[in-house]
Amino acid sequence: MDHTKKETNRPPYGILAVLMIGAFIAFLNNTLLNIALPSIMKDLDVVASTVQWLTTGFMLVNGILIPTTAFLIQKYSVRRLFLVAMGLFTVGTIIAGIAHTFPILLAGRMVQASGTAIMMPLLMNVMLVSFPIEKRGTAMGIFGLILMSAPAIGPTLSGWIVEHYDWRMLFHFVTPIAAVIFLSGVLLLKDKKEKVDIRLETFSLLLSSVGFGGLLYGFSSAGNRGWDSPHVFLALIAGAIALVWFILRQLRQESPMLNFRIFKYPMFSLSSAITMVLNMAMFSGMLLLPIYVQTIRGISPFDAGLMLLPGAILMSLMSPITGRLFDKFGGRILAIVGLAITTITTYYLSTLTFDTTYTYLMILHAIRMLGISMVMMPVSTNGLNQLPARFYPHGTAMNNTLNQVSGAIGTALLVTVMSNRTETYAEEMAADAMKHAAGQPTAAALAEMKQQIAMKAMLEGINDAFFVATFIAAVSLILAFFIKRATPAEDTITEQPSHNRM
């Protein structure tokens, strides 16, 4: 049954405008927080492996909720879903803004995430059904220009706010804007939805939550507890079992919550694999660079944000260009060139020193963003283009789920690498320093030596994490050579209804 396809001559620009503004403020909120992580670590007295939960926890909630959006998009109107999403995001922003302990801040972020989880698949689905395939690249490019302008202004704005005000002002700044967008949705969105007789199966939702949530929790906890902790490996085992059960259950259902049969379309499967692997590598720069420039180099939050600005602007400006190039040439050449650039620049980020210049970092980051901008939207659009229209809600939900899961796993993996290698280097350097120390060092000399060792060890740990990210990016590059230009496939994948329940 097709609940998504709309025969329209003119795209619903009013609805798209409101949705894009809502998605923009959600994206802006994420980029605002990255620069503030070191300040939050200091103010709330938490370590890097703990503060990363503000990013990983956000993605965990997205990974749990996004699989339900295929059902929600078919069941409810765009207006209702947007208002629920924007309302949750606004409430979460208020909670985070008044937080004076880390658990409350994390709770606020998770409420924000529950709104964002609905927002992005909803917008992507409206885009897919509003534009014909030959204009989709350009439309997605304009969409990317608007959304990528958030990373362009976010870090610099965040740096200025953190430098002059408390980090909570980041949330106070977003709250009134989110409230205005919510009210605009109430007044401007008037679409109606036919009553659809489908329901969300509770047990499938439970399996999905345990599956995706268990995997994300396991990977995220490894940084704090270590891979040999029962909390880690039991969560990973439970998550893997639940996820396999969830997939098998969906394949047996007449109206699955998330339709895994879409992976029978080869270009969609390939695009999913490439974007997942690239996401894992991409989050290294978003998380590790702010820690390096502020904690190790002592660069102010504002200057750290300014350093990331050219790359974000370049990525934003490239979005409509890559959209047009995609419509003309397809995604293969764009992905190969973009991933080659990303892999090379990620390697150079693994050679950071105490003397790496500010200008060098700015240029290297900008080139890396150029590479990433040539990959994400074209590859995703190419994969979605192969799906029949009735699978659009499932395709967008699956893409967003996999992006969140891979981003969370990548973040957790790279922070774990950084934390473990930092600890190893610190122990080796401390033993070596004590071996070569002349006599018994004074308390002041010992404190200074510990500080130097801590900074040097963290630098080496960050370099090792970027080196791992280089190999991850290289995997995406290899996969890109198999991309072919996708056209809408015939709807040959039929549902196989069964009333058997596992």
TrEMBL record:
Keywords assigned: Cell membrane, Membrane, Transmembrane, Transmembrane helix, Transport
Transmembrane segments: 12-33, 53-74, 81-105, 111-131, 138-157, 169-188, 200-219, 231-248, 268-293, 299-317, 329-348, 360-380, 465-483
Cross-referenced InterPro entries: EmrB-like, MFS, MFS_dom, MFS_trans_sf
Keyword RNA-binding attributed: no
Cited PANTHER family: MAJOR FACILITATOR SUPERFAMILY MULTIDRUG TRANSPORTER MFSC
Family recorded in the similarity comment: Belongs to the major facilitator superfamily. EmrB family.
Protein name stated in the entry: DHA2 family efflux MFS transporter permease subunit
Native source organism of the sequence: Peribacillus glennii
